[in-house]
Amino acid sequence: MCFSAPVSFAASAFIATAGVMALRETTLKSERPFASVPLLFAIQQFIEGCLWVLLPQAGTGAATHALTQGYAVFIGVIWPVIIPLSILLIEPDLIRKRLMQVVLLLGVAVAAFTLMIILKYGVAVQMVNQCLVYTNPVGGGFWIRSAYVVATCAAFFISSHVSVRVIGMAMVVGFAVAFSFFRLNYPSVWCFFAALVSGLTYWHFRRKKTGDVKETLTV
């Protein structure tokens, strides 16, 4: 992304703190996967911070390659599955759960396809115009990109939790900004925005725990 190692490391620390706070607010085991999302994003941002440090010094060596594949697994394998699954687990409405199951199946398909690409071709990273740009021989066409966005965002809007929907809207805004203004490396930039937005999971659980406002939608 078009920032720096200090920014990635600072974001990682901030998001990890939000994740720990969110986990402390949970009361059910089914809530823990969604509360853990910021912690996973924190790991991802830490990996990218390490890439910022390694690329100018070690180039595309073994350590850089391993970290790049790990970063790619987060983006293409973990998020399409864990996001819809974690939202499904906290959803009380049966009909909405069934719709989320469809999204989850799409996410599993996207994750399987991405994992196949990573294992077969690998993912490369390079610094271009002070940006970290990730590439692979297959690339990401319109349909792959669309399936990925649906898999990682649709469950937010199906949710009956108002705060989860707000998080979803912030995610989509982040994608629009990244795709419009950072086209060269929009996946990395979007993940950075999504990582920061994931900190709102603490707000979701805190809001739910205090019970100060109506938490779910009836329609």
Task: Give structural attributes.
219 residues; mainly alpha; two-stranded antiparallel ribbon; 8 helices
Largest sheet: 2 strands, antiparallel
* Approximate shape: globular
Tell me the β content: under 5%
What's the total helix number? Answer: 8
The poorly predicted ranges are none
Q: What Rg is obtained from the alpha carbons, in whole angstroms? A: 17 Å
Mean pLDDT level: 86
Helix content: over 70%
Please state how the strands of the largest beta sheet are arranged side by side.
1-2
Protein structure class: mainly alpha
Distance between the termini: 39 Å
Order of helical and strand elements: HHHHEEHHHH
Number of strands: 2
Kindly describe this structure.
- This protein is mainly α.
- Helices cover 75% and strands 5% of the residues.
- It has helices at 5-25, 32-58, 62-89, 94-120, 142-158, 162-181, 186-198, 200-210; strands at 124-128, 131-135.
- A two-stranded antiparallel ribbon has the order 1-2.
- A hairpin with a 2-residue loop joins strand 1 (124-128) and strand 2 (131-135).
- 37% of the residues are buried.
